[in-house]
Amino acid sequence: xxxxxxxRDRRGLILPKWLPPALLLLPAALVFGGLFVWPQLGLxxxxxxxxxxxxxxxxxxxxxxxxxxxxxxxxxxxGACVTLVxxxxxxxxxxxxxxxxxxxxxxxxxxxxFPLWVSAVVRSFAWMVLLLRNGLVSIWLRDAGLAPAGFQLxxxxxxxxxxxxQVLLPLMVITLYAVIKGIDRDLENAAMNLGAxxxxxxxxxxxxxxxxxxxxxxxxxxxxxxxxxxxxxxxGGATAQLMAVAIYEQTLEINDWPFAATISAILLAIAxxxxxxxxxxIDGRNVPVx
Length: 290
What we know:
It is built from 13 helices and no strands. By secondary structure, the protein is mainly α. The longest helix is centred in the N-terminal third of the chain and has 34 residues. The radius of gyration is 24 Å and the shape is globular. 26% of the residues are buried.
């Protein structure tokens, strides 16, 4: 009887169990391999082509130059700061939307995602207007006594963090909203019935159950922020010494493609390493709350 359930072809021959899933995955695998894996292999081959046929002189040049090491550290710091800002601002908003019982929730989510609809260049120019010396944000900070005369957030690391956090915040909110929405609020009520305050109940229950979404949203924001180019280059100006900007300079200004490929490969390796670590954290901490 079990044999009758085996997949068969038109001639009645029994097919291997792995064949139908493999055929279903084949189109996606071809697209993924052709548009991602093959270009990345070509990128790595270009990075190790100096000196020919195979060499790692460009990697030694990168790791031996304090300027590029500082660029790498600055890029990772930017990703960490943007991720932290998005998490601190995004979790309360996602929790509010997930617990809000209103027909306006879809509309509010659409409003939250509005920054994703606008071009990166348009958003960057808008932040330039706000962060310049005579911009609204700089004037408000000076009038409030929080900044000295002549202060501006434009062309600064803080300005880049603010501009990137504004555009990447919707990704964090949407990711957390979907996870928190699936958490039964009766668990929070049970914690409060046992004596926990509402805030402590959220920390003990919701935060622990939503950590998978926190890891996923943080990984998404971190990966996009360390590879961002348009916003840092426009808002940060000449002070935006980041990996993406360095790749642009090496390819279009200096025309050093092997070194640009090296910088790209290092950035990709870091992003993949972080993704693997996040994946292990999600698998290792995916345990029921006791």
